[in-house]
Amino acid sequence: MSLNAQQMQATRDELQANFALTGLTKAQVADDLAISATKLDHLFDLTQQSLNDPWILRNYLIEKVEAGGKTPVPFTALSGDWHRHWFLNSVVIDRREMSAGDC
Questions:
Q1: Sequence ranges of the domains in the chain
Q2: What are phi and psi of 47, to 5 degrees?
Q3: Between 85 and 1, the higher pLDDT residue
Q4: Which Pfam families did the record assign (predicted)?
C-alpha cells in the first residue's frame, strides 16, 4: 500500500502526537521495541522499508497512551485491523518483530 504525500504527513503527525502522549523518551521506545534510535527515527519519518514496522510502532504507541489513562490520537491511514490488509504480515505485527537493520 502506498500513501500519498498528505497521508504520509498526517501519519507522521499522528505518530508524533501519540508519542508525545506517552511521556516516554525516544530512547525508552527504542529500548522497548529492541531497535536502534536510527531505526526509530526512520519509523517516525516513514522512511523505513518494512510496511509492518510502522504498524508495530503504531500499536505500541496506542498501548502506551491507553496504559497512561489517555485517549490516543486516531490514525487516519494506519487504521483498521491490520489482520485484514493482505500486504501486511499480521503474525509479525502481533509478535512485534521489527525488521532487521536500520532501514
A1: 5-95
A2: -105, 10
A3: 85
A4: DUF2316 (PF10078)
